[in-house]
UniProtKB/TrEMBL annotation, chain A:
This is Acyl-CoA dehydrogenase family protein. It comes from Nocardioides bizhenqiangii. Gene3D superfamilies: Acyl-CoA dehydrogenase/oxidase, N-terminal domain (1.10.540.10), Butyryl-CoA Dehydrogenase, subunit A, domain 2 (2.40.110.10), Butyryl-CoA Dehydrogenase, subunit A, domain 3 (1.20.140.10). Keywords: FAD, Flavoprotein, Oxidoreductase. Its cofactor is FAD. The lineage of its organism: Bacteria, Bacillati, Actinomycetota, Actinomycetes, Propionibacteriales. The keyword Oxidoreductase applies. Residues 6-120 form the Acyl-CoA dehydrogenase/oxidase N-terminal domain. Residues 124-220 form the Acyl-CoA oxidase/dehydrogenase middle domain.
From TrEMBL, chain B:
It comes from the Bacteria. This is Acyl-CoA dehydrogenase family protein. It comes from Nocardioides bizhenqiangii. InterPro entries: AcylCo_DH-like_C, AcylCo_DH/oxidase_C, AcylCoA_DH/ox_N_sf, AcylCoA_DH/oxidase_NM_dom_sf. Keywords: FAD, Flavoprotein, Oxidoreductase. The lineage of its organism: Bacteria, Bacillati, Actinomycetota, Actinomycetes, Propionibacteriales. Its cofactor is FAD. The keyword Transport does not apply.
Length: 394, 305
């Protein structure tokens, strides 16, 4: 058992570190959920892609480096340590691309992956519906067969679609067989968000920015060429990669380790006073303990990830451990930012990168399957506890 | 990079597991608590045959934590940390028979000095053999704590770090066992017409214990790897493991008791052996406050984060 990187992994790390040092913007980019910030984030994606750093684990044919999972984790650590911008193309790269690689046709791979890698097309996920959030299988938006035109006609509404305000393409599940049982008869579609019949209505988030949107479908035609996987097989297609190694990639530990390091710096520098008021002291507050705990939990996540990566490299599967991961990083993210706000004292309510990070962190336990759903998964699939009887939850 | 136990390390853990699962360690612990050391010393000898007492000098800290996680899982009584972690490092050789040590201020009493062949006191100038004084009871009835003559603080050296780490590993094993027993109970105990483990309120508490233990384990292994090398940050890694294992095991104990209800609150039920040992080990070999302080000092001493 060891934590030592090989010669080639060290070389990869050094190359990434050098490139990031030379290229990361000196000033943080404006929020990606504004028109100006969106354009700058797209430029950053293009710059990453030009030197093959946007999708390091992808094949070389699609702008990648064929990097191993270990190298991917190394890259993420370096990326966030360097203070590089959040990834505007994240939904596409981490949620959709693995499915296109596994279930997409060669034509779909060639059409969609290169523009995703360069940030030319940004993808929005269209999963939730007004009546289907955590209970995704209860979704109602429909796809009707149109043999004449060789495709499908979509109707219905999606909501909380991250990045849909400015994105150009969307992906989501639609009920293509109304007779089939809940998890069956769903089909996975890819569609341009400027297609005839699509209406995107931005929704302002807590911070006032339109990070997500409602998307309305009114007789939207999608050709067969843009169906991902077999019609009616959408649930299996969507879930096939949910638990695998890419499940790891939603939030890599690098982000939290870098934030914990910045928190320690903030603790060191804020030990005196804020606007004349004494900074929270160890004697009268938990702030020192909370700084340690944030660092500890980020460190635990880092080491846990190395263990996961080793198991996956040995042919293991992520499985329900993805749920353990998700609860951990989402709660860590909030605790870490809350501690920073405690340290900022009365300045905590002012605009700052810590405040931005805090508002973003608040969504963690809600999206990608609420933490309540994750805890049920852990209890039932890992601990083997009995399922709640039908009807008991509602 | 291979952050996983090797096949040999797994096999060693499995061998200890087989030995301990057949040893009725709850009965051994009860006898030990009542002053009957014979079953405990027999078990000690069998574990020594498996090599547990020579790991600190002949193997690596990774093997040490594997052994102590197993000792924790089965709540094995006795001065194991003292005899198989601290003293072998401090003396530079394995301990023959059973020995114990007090290392103030983090381990101020000599544990189980009444069964030890040798009793030491650690101070700034090394070890001295001492005669134990008055005995104190512990929340863990199997821990018999003996006064020793006052001494200046023992150094936080490699022997201390291995002891704190072994205690962390023990806590991890104790927490795992409490979780496993509690899950088994929640699947079998019925209230309002169904298993209590089917209620979301119970599920979520147990899921939180699973999560806490899952993230404590890599810190134990990470600290073992960094002590093996050893690297400059090893003491911080040890403290990280001790804090997180203490928190996780304590959560397991509190949750385990809550889910078991009144039966868990009785001395007759074996759960009491595990949860009282967890409470004792949370503060043994460095309190959470001490270890957090050591982490904070290390983090803020670095320049530039």
């Amino acid at each position: 058992m060891d934590l030592e990187l090989s010669e080639s992994e060290l070389a990869f790390q050094a190359e990434a570190r050098a490139w990031l040092a030379a290229n990361v913007p000196a000033e943080p980019l404006p929020s990606m959920d504004t028109a100006e910030g969106w354009a700058l984030h797209q430029e950053w994606e293009a710059r990453l892609a030009a030197d093959r750093w946007s999708v390091v684990s992808w094949p070389r044919d699609y702008h990648g480096r064929d990097a191993s999972l270990i190298e991917w984790v190394i890259f993420e650590e370096e990326y966030y340590r360097a203070g590089a911008p959040g990834r505007v193309s994240q939904n596409g790269i981490f949620l959709l691309a693995p499915i296109i690689f596994e279930h997409g046709t060669k034509d779909q791979q060639d059409r969609f992956l290169p523009t995703m890698a360069t940030g030319e097309e940004i993808w929005a996920q269209c999963w939730s519906e007004p009546e289907a959030g955590s209970d995704l299988a209860s979704l109602n938006s429909t796809a009707r067969r149109d043999d004449g035109r060789g495709g499908w006609v979509l109707n219905g509404q999606k909501t909380w679609s991250s990045r849909a305000t400015y994105a150009t393409w969307g992906f989501g599940l639609f009920r293509s067989d109304p007779e089939a049982a809940r998890h069956h008869g769903l089909t996975y579609f890819l569609f341009p968000l400027d297609a005839d019949g699509v209406t995107v209505r931005p929704i302002a988030q807590l911070d006032g920015e339109a990070g997500f949107a409602e998307v309305f479908f009114d007789d939207v035609f999608v050709p067969d060429a843009d169906v991902l996987g077999a019609p009616g097989d959408g649930w299996r297609v969507a879930m096939s990669t949910a638990g695998n190694e890419r499940g790891l990639s939603l939030r890599s530990p690098g982000r939290f380790c870098a934030a914990a390091d910045r928190l320690v710096d903030l603790y060191r520098s804020s030990a005196v006073e804020v606007r004349g008021a004494p900074a929270p002291s160890l004697e009268t507050s938990d702030v020192g303990k909370n700084v340690v705990d944030a660092w500890l939990k980020a460190e635990a996540y880092r080491l846990y990830t190395w263990g996961t990566v080793t198991r996956l490299a040995d042919g293991g599967e992520m499985g329900a451990a993805g749920s353990v991961n998700k609860v951990w990083w989402s709660e860590l993210d909030i605790a870490l930012h809350e501690t920073a706000l405690d340290l900022l004292g009365t300045d905590a309510e002012l605009d700052s990168t810590w405040l931005d990070g805090y508002t973003f962190a608040l969504s963690g336990p809600i999206y990608a399957g609420t933490n309540e759903i994750q805890r049920n998964i852990i209890a039932e699939r890992i601990l083997g506890l009995p399922r709640e009887p039908k009807g008991a939850q509602r | 990079m291979r952050f996983e136990l090797t096949e040999e390390q797994r096999a060693f853990g499995d061998a200890l597991e087989r030995l301990l699962s057949g040893a009725d360690t709850a009965a051994v612990a009860r006898a030990w608590a009542d002053g009957d050391h014979e079953p405990g010393l027999k078990l000690w000898a069998r574990l020594a045959e498996q090599g547990v007492t020579v790991l600190a000098t002949d193997a690596s800290p990774v093997e040490v934590v594997i052994a102590f996680e197993a000792l924790g899982r089965y709540a094995v009584p006795g001065p194991w940390v003292e005899s198989a972690a601290y003293l072998p490092i401090a003396l530079g050789r394995e301990v023959e028979g059973v020995a114990t040590v007090a290392a103030p201020p983090h381990a101020p009493f000599a544990l189980d000095a009444d069964v030890a062949d040798a009793v030491y006191l650690a101070g700034p100038n090394g070890l001295t053999e001492v005669t134990p004084g008055d005995r104190h009871g512990s929340v863990d009835r199997t821990r018999h704590l003996f006064e020793v003559a006052a001494s200046d603080p023992a150094p936080e050296d490699a022997a201390f770090d291995l002891s704190a780490l072994a205690t962390a590993a023990q806590l991890l094993g104790l927490g795992e066992r409490v979780l496993a027993d509690t899950v088994a109970y929640a699947k079998q105990r019925r209230q309002f017409g169904r298993e209590i483990g089917s209620y979301q309120a119970i599920k979520h508490q147990l899921a939180d214990v699973r999560i806490a233990l899952d993230f404590a384990r890599p810190l134990v292994h990470g600290a073992a790897v960094s002590l093996a090398e050893p690297v400059e940050t090893a003491p911080r890694a040890v403290s990280a493991a001790k804090v997180m294992c203490g928190d996780a095991a304590y959560l397991a104990a509190r949750t385990g008791l809550q889910v078991h209800g009144a039966i868990g609150y009785t001395q007759e039920f074996d759960l009491s052996i595990w949860i009282t040992k967890i409470r004792a080990l949370v503060t043994a070999w460095g309190t959470p406050t001490f270890h957090r302080g050591r982490i904070l000092a290390s983090l803020t001493a670095q320049t530039g984060g």
